[in-house]
Every structure is written in structure tokens, then in C-alpha cells.
Write a structure and sequence with these properties.
Elements (H helix, E strand, L loop, with lengths): L1 H4 L5 H20 L7 H23 L4 H27 L9 H23 L5 H26 L5 H27 L11 H29 L11 H18 L4
């Protein structure tokens, strides 16, 4: 798991995580745009190249962090606009793509979260453990449930056992997301100075346990796909992408941060 070994939370590592997410989304989206949609394909390829260049800058760790965040934020906003425009056209059957509308929405939500994280970095604002837990769970648990749906979407119907595993895990993460949503409203007026509630701490531990198991499952499936041992239309590095996000969730919950 190279992304685990190299997981860094310095300023460059944080920027890299979010930029790489959007860069990956652009690459995955590229393969699902019809050859009839040349203008959309060119616009998306331009975004992929731009985000890829920014990602390379995060790896070199020589660029000014403030300028790098600003550049990454502007690129992410433009990518968000492209995705939102495409989703609107897709919902009105005005574009030929094989990307599900829910997946476009998934990518849009991550682009929005990326901008929010960059603004948090720029402001230097401190977030309480309670707010961090609620936010991370509410945002990422929905993304984790989405990931399982997309795994199912790409898996051939002949993978009966894998489909059973995915269905069981999907139900589990859908329930966790519903619980996170309930806690989000229950703790709206919580007194932050009293520290982390035992209720939230217990929920954190549940999510950490299940997300670690989900990460392991994604990496096992990634190995099957790379060995051509599972019949699937999944992009070859999709499972690495979503495993990295699962790792990000449980690490943030353990460290009680939003980054």
C-alpha cells in the first residue's frame, strides 16, 4: 500500500491528497465520454493536464504553499464547473457519456469539499474534535457507500460472491451514514468545551473499524483486477483511488482532524 507508507499531513501532502482525487476523477471520467462529445473530451483533458501539473508540484515540495493552494483552488473550481455543467446536460439527456449521474454528483461533492479544505488551510481556523468527527463522518460515509455502489456497477454479474460482499458492505455503510446524519442534527447545539462525547467517540470507533475493513477489501479487489482475476470494467487504478480515500477517513477520525 504505497499511499499508506507515503501518507503525509504536511502542507504539501494535504494539497496532494485533494488534488490527486480530482485528477483521478478527471482521468476516470475521460474514459466514459463518447467520441461524439469532442468538446467535452477536450475540456476534460485540459483539466486533467492542469491538475496533473499541480499534483507534480506537490510532489516536488518546492512551490510556495500559499500560491500552490491558490492555484489548486482555482483549478478545482473550474473542474467543479465542468462537472456541474455536464451533470445538468446529462439530466436533460443532452450529452452522450456512460458516467452515472450519481457518480458525477459524487465527483462534484468532492470538488466542493476540496475547496472547503483549501479555505480551511488558508484561514488557519481550528476545528473542535466534535465538529471534526461529525463533518468527516457525514461527508465521507456517503462517499464510502457510493464507492461500493460503483464497485457493483463495474463488476460483471458473474461475480456472485463479490456482489454479495459488496451488497452487505453497502448496507453497513448506508446505515452508518444514516447514523452520522442523525448525530449531525443531534449535536448541533453541543457544548464543544466539554470535549468529545462518549456517543461520538463510540461511533468513531465503529466507523474506524468498518472503514479499515473496507480499505482492505478494496485493496484485495484491486489485486484481483490487476491480475485479471475478476471480470470487471473498472479502471485499473480505481480501487487504489477509493482505498486511499478510505484510509484518509479512518486516519482523520483517529487524529480528530479535518484535512
Amino acid at each position: 500500500m504505497p499511499y499508506t507508507d507515503n501518507y503525509e499531513r504536511d502542507i504539501y501532502g494535504i494539497i496532494a491528497f485533494w488534488v490527486q482525487n480530482n485528477y483521478d476523477h478527471g482521468r476516470f471520467f475521460d474514459r466514459e465520454i463518447s467520441h461524439h462529445e469532442m468538446e467535452l473530451a477536450r475540456a476534460n483533458q485540459n483539466m486533467v493536464q492542469r491538475l496533473g501539473t499541480i499534483f507534480e508540484k506537490t510532489q516536488s515540495k518546492t512551490a510556495d504553499p500559499a500560491k500552490l493552494i491558490d492555484e489548486a483552488e482555482h483549478a478545482t473550481r473550474e473542474f467543479h464547473s465542468l462537472l456541474a455543467y455536464t451533470l445538468d446536460k446529462s439530466l436533460h439527456c443532452e450529452v452522450i457519456i456512460s458516467t452515472p449521474q450519481s457518480l458525477l454528483d459524487h465527483m462534484i461533492r468532492e470538488a466542493e469539499e476540496t475547496v472547503s479544505v483549501f479555505k480551511l488551510l488558508q484561514s488557519g481556523q481550528q476545528v473542535s474534535a466534535t465538529d471534526a468527527t461529525i463533518h468527516e463522518n457525514y461527508f465521507w460515509l456517503r462517499q464510502m457507500a457510493d464507492h461500493l455502489s460503483y464497485i457493483s456497477h463495474y463488476l460483471d454479474t458473474s461475480n456472485y460472491d463479490l456482489h454479495d460482499q459488496v451488497r452487505n458492505m453497502t448496507k453497513k455503510f448506508e446505515n452508518l451514514f444514516l447514523q452520522a446524519n442523525a448525530l449531525r442534527t443531534m449535536f448541533r447545539y453541543s457544548r464543544k468545551e466539554k470535549g468529545m462525547s462518549p456517543v461520538l467517540n463510540n461511533f468513531n470507533q465503529m466507523v474506524i473499524k468498518e472503514t479499515k475493513a473496507l480499505e482492505a477489501f478494496k485493496l484485495e479487489l484491486d489485486d484481483l483486477i490487476k491480475r485479471c482475476a475478476a471480470v470487471t470494467t473498472s479502471p485499473p487504478d480505481l480501487l487504489e483511488h477509493i482505498a486511499r480515500e478510505a484510509h484518509h477517513l479512518w486516519r482523520n477520525l483517529e487524529d480528530q482532524v479535518i484535512l
